Amino acid sequence: MCRMAHFGNCDPETADQEYCIFHKPNKSEEEAREFYRKFFERFKPRIEEIEVEDESEQKKKSKEACF
Ligand SMILES: [Zn+2]
What we know:
binds zinc ion, 67 residues, 2 helices, mainly alpha, 52% helix, elongated
């Protein structure tokens, strides 16, 4: 059980560990990336729209490259 569980908002997938990924101190780079992925997945801020835009922008660019 996450030691910070009383604060709420634990990541359900990792909440059985000493710290869930949301509350883990000194995250490694990989853990930090996982944290942000889960965090944005859960709270769905505007970032997601930006990511989608970026994706279509990249598709456009790769299409242009094909021509
Ligand atoms: Zn937690």
